[in-house]
Each structure stands twice: as C-alpha cells, then as structure tokens.
Write a structure and sequence with these properties.
Blueprint (H helix, E strand, L loop, with lengths): L13 H9 L37 E3 L13 E5 L5 H9 L3 E7 L2 E3 L13 E4 L6 E4 L4 H17 L3 E5 L14 H17 L3 E5 L5 H4 L5 E5 L11 H5 L4 E6 L8 H13 L2 E5 L8 E3 L3
Parallel strand pairs: 1-2, 2-3, 3-7, 7-8, 8-9, 9-10, 10-11
Antiparallel strand pairs: 4-6, 5-6, 11-12
Helix pairs in contact: 3-4
Length: 291
C-alpha cells in the first residue's frame, strides 16, 4: 500500500489554518467554547433519523478562517466546529444552506478548548508541519469519549453534519501501532456515533479505504484528488447516490485555461463537485466547477 500523503498535503490548507489558530490568527470575536471532560454524553438507544441526507446535486463551500461567506450559491458549507458560532450556523441555515462542522478526529491541537481532556498516553508523534499537534491513539477509550463529546457539541450547535478530519493516522508515523483494520474500526465508530445524534457524516480523504467505508458514510470530501490522480476511487460514493466534494488549491488551477478546464471536465464526468480554493481557506479565492 502506498503511503497516503493526502492528509499531510493539507499543508497548503489545513496545516496553514492550524498554524494560524495556534498563534491566534483566527479571531472569531467570540469567547472560547468550553467542552468539559465530564460533559454528559448524548446517548440515544437507537440511531436517530438523519436531519439531512446529502444528495449528488449538492454543491459546497469550504472556509475555516474568518467569518463564513454566505453569499455563494453553494448548498453545503464546511466550517470549523469550534470557531463557528451557533448564531452563524443558524444564519447559514436560514439562508437555505446545510452546515458541515469540521474537527480533527486524528490528532490533538493544543489550542482547542477540550485539549486538557486528552491524557499523556493518548498522544503520540508530532504531526509534521503542524505546531502543537500530535497524532492520537484512536483505540483509546478516552480519545473516543472526547470525540463523542465533540459530536455532542455539533448536535447542540445545530450542525447538519460533521467532517472529522485527519482520520487516517494509520498511513502516518503516529507512534502507535495503527493499521488499516484499526482505522476502519475507528472511522465506523465515528459514523455510528454521528448517526446516533442525527448527524450526517463525511469521510475525509482516506482514499485507500473508500470502498470499504462508503456504506457507513453519507458523503465524501477529498483534497487534491485530481492533482494526485486519486479521484477514481470515489466511484463507490457516486454509485450509491452520495456526493463527493473535492477541493483543489489555487495555483495551477487559478487562472482560466486548460488546467482548470480539464479539472472541471474530469470532475463533472465523475459526478463530483469540485471547487478551487485559496490554500489558507480564508475566502480570498474560490472557483466552482458547478455554479
């Protein structure tokens, strides 16, 4: 199996945001959201009906820095779980949009309000290029409890779905004995817990496990699958009527021309929804193949 670099190739985007957050670069103007380690878990006896079922026709916008721009015609918006206020989520929904709340499910970030809940043994090797981030032991009961509380937070804030990021530690040097089998188990755990709260859930990256996990997730999100020749792996989602959102980053696709035209033509042929975004995900550049 080839080493999955897609999850570190978020360096042009996600890791830039991590660095901004670590040094206070993202200012929401809101007080931090406390998520106590002892917060009660929302545990319905049976899976709840999803409040929203993603569809192939959906289009999307992804933004992590600054106030989320609601002016785009995209029907789905990805926004940071912690940095996006309940009022902002409600405002987006009032405008007819569905909101995916993003959080890291695979590594800890020392600036997050619930960071103290992680135990020393939960955290392994440092994440390359992300100051203050360490890979997590996804078999840890404590790590899983923290993720349950993050899903509780998503439900309380009114998110329509969740986007657990970095849930592919098995493909990196984490300091733990993570395998493809343990990753499948953890990702299915996240999907089950999200569904129990009535939340749709996106499979983020994890190209090598797409076929095996497609049944458990409601949509897929990828970064740079066109640039790295990985988009064909998402046929399992499209065939099941589940949307695939892809983000490519500005540069070779920014100016109109053959590169961007070829990208959009390939995306449409595969039934995917592709946007070209600024690497910082700060709304400074966006081009949609579908709007």
């Amino acid at each position: 199996m080839k080493l999955s670099l897609s999850r570190l190739r978020a360096a042009p985007a996600v890791l830039a945001i991590l660095a901004l957050s670590a040094c206070g670069g993202i200012d929401t103007g809101l007080p931090p959201i406390a998520v106590p380690a002892t917060a009660p878990l929302f545990s319905p006896p049976t899976p709840a009906a999803l409040a929203w079922t993603p569809a192939l026709r959906d289009t999307w916008q992804r933004q992590a820095a600054g106030n989320v721009d609601a002016d785009f015609p995209a029907t789905v918006v990805s926004a940071d779980l912690f940095n996006t206020s309940t009022a902002a989520i409600q405002s987006l929904q009032d405008g007819g949009k569905k909101v995916l709340c993003s959080f890291s499910a695979g590594h800890s970030d020392h600036w997050r309000p619930d960071f103290p809940a992680f135990q020393f043994d939960d955290m392994g090797s440092a994440v390359e290029g992300a100051s203050g981030a360490r890979w997590l032991d996804t078999a840890s009961e404590n790590v899983r409890a923290i993720m349950q509380r993050r899903l509780d937070l998503a439900r309380r804030k009114g998110c329509d779905g969740v986007e657990p990021d970095h849930a592919d530690g098995y493909a990196h040097k984490t300091g733990f004995d993570l395998t493809a089998a343990s990753q499948r188990d953890y990702n299915r755990f996240l999907a089950t817990e999200a569904h129990q709260r009535g939340l749709a859930i996106a499979l983020k990256n994890n190209v090598e496990l797409v076929f095996e996990l497609a049944e458990s997730f409601d949509l897929a999100i990828n970064e740079q699958c066109h640039q790295y020749g990985e988009c064909s792996g998402y046929a399992a989602f499209v065939a099941a009527g589940k949307p695939v959102f892809n983000a490519e980053y500005a540069g070779i696709y920014q100016a109109p021309g053959s590169d961007r035209d070829a990208l959009c033509a390939a995306s449409k042929k595969r039934g995917m929804r592709t946007v070209v975004l600024a690497g910082a995900l700060d709304d400074s550049y966006r081009y949609s193949c579908d709007e």
